[in-house]
Amino acid sequence: MPDRLIELAIEALESKKAAIDAEIAALRKDLRPARSRRQVRARRVGKKSRISAAGRKALSERMTARWAEWRAERAKNAAKARKPARRAKTKPKQRARPTEEKKS
After folding, report:
1. Cβ contact 86:78 at 8 Å
2. Is residue 68 part of a domain?
3. In a domain, 40, yes or no
């Protein structure tokens, strides 16, 4: 019988402990309401293209033409700035010495 009394006392204390823990949690919640976690927005899985295929093609053609024009302008400016080629300086050629006739 004493074992049964101890078990009942333990059960009563555990129920009181659960009630006290619940009260402590409620008080902590009231103490710091601003500490709650902020809501995180869900991300979109895939972005939808906002330009049509025809619009993409037209844009591609315009950009190709723009870069071709830029390259042509750059080549023209480079040709103007280029100096004419100069001959490389070389040593003067040595004259051939007259050959002496062999004595026989």
Report:
1. no
2. yes
3. no
The tens digit of pLDDT for each residue in 10-69 reads: 999 999 999 999 999 888 888 876 655 666 777 777 777 789 999 999 999 999 999 999
Residue 104 to residue 99: CA distance in whole angstroms: 15
Helix (H, G, I), strand (E, B) or coil at 40: coil
Contact 71, 63 (CB under 8 A): no
Compute the CA torsion angle 74, 75, 77, 79 (nearest 10 deg). Answer: 160
Rounded Cα gap, residues 75 and 69, in angstroms? 10
**C-alpha radius of gyration, the chain, whole number:** 48
Residue 76 lies in a domain: yes
Q: List the structure tokens of 79.
A: 């040709």
Q: Check residue 71 and give its pLDDT.
A: 95
Amino acid at 101: E
Could you tell me the maximum CA-CA distance found in the chain, to the nearest angstrom?
152
Is residue 85 assigned to a domain?
A: no
